[in-house]
Every structure is written in C-alpha cells, then in structure tokens.
Amino acid sequence: MVPDDQTSPRQLEILRAMPGERRLKLAEQLYWAARKMKAAGVRAQHPDWPDEQIKAEVTRIFRHARS
Question: pTM to 2 decimals?
C-alpha cells in the first residue's frame, strides 16, 4: 500500500484482474494473520494467561470488532 493507506489504481487493477477464488483466499489469509497478531498482542499484555484464555479473548475481540 502507499503511505496514506489508500489503494493505488495499480493495486485495484491487480485485484480486479484476480479470479474471485484468489481474492477470497487472500482475504482469508489476511483474516488469520490479523488473528495471530492480535493473539500475540494479548499474550504480551497477559503473559500469565493460558492459550485457551488467549484464544477466547481474541474471539471476543473479533466478534465485537467494527470496521
């Protein structure tokens, strides 16, 4: 992405040229990457929490997320 987080015309062109299945796969990969990053952040804030509590907190955060 460009520095101001706006999608460039070239990026839009590339995305529009992709088959729908590929765009869906990319979206899925981004989703799971975001969950892993959030889990790492929660783990850093609560190093004493067990993995199941971390997973539950990440699920709660994503369930209530707003765009």
Answer: 0.77
